[in-house]
Design a protein that fits this description.
With 583 residues, the chain is an alpha+beta fold. Helices cover 38% and strands 27% of the residues.
């Protein structure tokens, strides 16, 4: 993707914005009855919202794209015009563009700006290219339903997405990238590899883990628990339901009410399914008086939480209603803050590297305009986060004022095999909850002191991270993570007993193995195992049985030769150690 990736996204924004106007121009030429919404540039390309009673068809998109290319080829100047607000309102009133009229009425000031290209004119603040002729290559990608101003009570719009570039080579590269993204889509691979599913009978956004997907998840959880215990974390479990009052005290009922499922009423109490794990950990902390000698307390939980996301924003494993966070909360003295932050950042990077990620983007979000706690504490916490990031030697970016109201934070993004960024690890300092819940410890002078609380997630959510892993590896998990590490494939029924012995020995040694004793031809068995992306295949025929060997095949690399069973066991153990995991 060299051409596309070499372009800075911010440099392409005026380019894509101009092409969105070309799209609107083409649609109005072909379908004059259509009403215009808005058409911004987005992260990758552009869209324009249209109001039309009849849905746009694939044939419509082809017609529109042809007309767009004609408008681009015409090299029409993009002319900025400024008009009085009253004149602009009259213009759109006459043309019947009620959505534009609504926007104008909400704009401040007495003047508004337009951009004209030929006979087409649109309300817009810019910026744009100087001419439509700068757009040398474009295509429309899809059409989707949307609501005017994202309000489901308003008009239903049709949103047409597109992309454009200064030359055809860049567009070709982008389309090839899109093809690769589709091939890696975790929603498709999840079905093909039988990893997980969503069931309409159960409701949207709720994940059902199938045996293979559950095997990978179990490995992830075991690894995380093991690594946390090595670093002094203790494992907790907290209830999925708790009294509504708890969430009033924590503030979640006020700040996250729209994401909290309706309460269950029982025995004159209102119970909520938890949207967060932190209040549960706080209650355990408050269970008895704490001494400075106990601190820091590092408590971790694979805690499943539930958030009432709108069905329209649900997206495979990346946006669900029920998910499990690899959550941890550290309660420490102020003087321990620097070390705890540094260790948490280093821990997060170690974990992400183990899962195969090598490129990171780190963001430090500082104090917003509205905040709780003293400025001194904020400065101390922000300084600790800076030191923690600098200690690992990775460049970071400061997002001024983007911290949450209760404290500054660090966000770590990973880059996958296609160079896409994914938000994963988060480390947040919290002054709010310790104060709300009246947390304290007895310091060395025998006085009560408020601890500092650190929220820490390494992967974010297991569901989302699993989806990222599927796309990063294209479903071909590394050996230590693969749900099935080796398939034993006897060529005929005569080798079944020998295959069973190999299977049992490998299973006893702790490997995840399957055996295919079907009556199908070996070529079909191999093809099926390759489609399932099983790392190794042990093929057993008459010669292998007589010699006590196996014919080894590696996914994506083909035949690896004939080796003895002992060599196979040793090779698999060595391969597992090389990938950093354990069986």
């Amino acid at each position: 993707m060299q051409n596309f990736m070499n372009e800075k996204i911010e440099d392409l924004q005026p380019f894509w914005h101009t092409t969105s106007h070309i799209l609107a121009h083409a649609v109005k030429d072909l379908y004059p009855e259509v009403k215009l919404g808005t058409g911004p540039a987005i992260e990758n390309g552009f869209y324009y919202d249209f109001y039309r009673l009849q849905p746009f068809t694939p044939e419509d998109l082809k017609r529109i794209e042809v007309r767009m290319k004609e408008i681009a080829a015409a090299g029409l100047p993009m002319v900025r015009e400024e008009r009085d607000k009253s004149e602009a309102e009259e213009f759109f009133r006459k043309t019947g563009e009620n959505f534009k009229l609504e926007i104008i009425k909400e704009l401040p000031g007495d003047k508004v700006t337009f951009y004209r290209q030929g006979e087409f004119i649109d309300l817009c603040a810019g910026p744009h290219l100087e001419s439509t002729g700068k757009v040398k290559a474009l295509t429309l990608l899809s059409v989707a339903a949307s609501y005017w101003r994202a309000d489901e009570k308003r008009e239903s719009m049709q949103r047409i997405y597109g992309i454009s570039f200064p030359d055809q080579a860049a567009l070709d590269e982008y389309l090839e990238r899109l093809k690769e993204i589709k091939e890696r889509d975790h929603r498709r691979l999840g079905v093909e590899l039988d990893l997980y599913s969503f069931q309409d009978e159960a409701g949207p956004g709720l994940v059902f883990w199938h045996p293979k997907g559950a095997a990978v998840r179990h490995i992830m959880e075991e690894y995380l628990i093991h690594e946390q215990q090595k670093r002094g974390y203790q494992i907790l479990y907290t209830p999925h339901l708790s009294d509504e009052h708890l969430w009033q005290v924590s503030g979640h009922l006020d700040f996250y009410r729209q994401y909290i499922f309706p309460a269950l009423e029982t025995e004159n109490r209102r119970l909520l399914v938890k949207p967060m794990n932190c209040p549960g950990h706080i209650l355990i902390y408050k269970n008895r008086l704490r001494s400075y000698r106990e601190l820091p307390l590092r408590w971790a939980e694979m805690g499943t939480v539930y958030r009432l996301e709108k069905s329209g924003v649900l997206h495979g494993l990346l946006r669900v209603r029920g998910f499990t966070q690899d959550d941890a909360h550290i309660f420490c003295r102020p003087e321990d803050l620097d070390k705890e932050i540094k260790d948490a950042v280093s821990f997060a990077l170690d974990v992400l590297r183990t899962f195969g990620f090598a490129e990171f983007e780190i963001f430090l979000s500082t104090r917003p305009e509205k905040f709780v706690g003293s400025e001194g504490n904020w400065e101390r916490a922000t300084d600790a986060l800076k030191k923690g990031v600098e200690a690992v030697g990775i460049a970071y970016r400061v997002d001024p004022g983007e911290g949450v109201f209760y404290g500054p934070k660090i966000d770590i993004k990973i880059k996958d095999a296609l160079g896409r960024s994914w938000q994963c690890s988060t480390i947040q300092v919290d002054f709010n909850l310790p104060e709300r819940f009246g947390l304290s410890f007895i310091n060395s002078e025998g006085k009560e002191e408020q601890p500092i609380m650190i929220h820490r997630a390494l992967l974010g959510s297991l569901e989302r991270f699993f989806g990222v892993l599927v796309e990063h590896y294209k479903g071909a998990f590394p050996f230590w993570l693969a749900p099935v590490q080796l398939a034993v494939l006897p060529i005929t029924e005569k080798e079944s007993d020998y295959a069973q012995k190999v299977f049992e020995r490998l299973t006893k040694d702790g490997f995840r193995v399957m055996i295919d004793n079907s009556d199908e031809k070996i070529s079909k068995k191999i093809r099926r195992a390759e489609l399932e992306k099983i790392p190794f295949l042990a093929i057993l025929g008459k010669r292998e049985q007589e010699a006590g060997t196996v014919s080894l095949r590696q996914h994506g690399k083909g035949e690896q030769g004939v080796i003895s069973r002992e060599e196979l066991f040793a090779k698999l153990k060595e391969f597992c150690n090389q990938t950093g995991g354990a069986t």
